[in-house]
Amino acid sequence: MAAVRALVLALACGLLLALAAPAAAAATSEPQDQIVLSGTVDVPRGQEVGEVVVLHGSVSVEGVVRGDVVVLDGRISVAGQVSGAVVAISGTVFVGPDAQIGGDVIVRDTLTLKEGARIGGQVRQGAAFTLRSPIRALGRFASWLAVATSTLVLGLLLILIAPRAADAVASVASGSPWVSLGWGAAVFVGIPVIAVLSIVSLLGLPFGLALLLALLLLYSVGYAWSVWALGRLLWKAPRSRALAFVFGWLIVSAVAAIPVVGGIVWLVGSVFGLGAMSVATWRARGSGGKHRGGKPAPSAPAPRAVEPDPSGIPFAG
Question: Is the domain of 118 the same as that of 176?
Answer without folding.
Answer: no
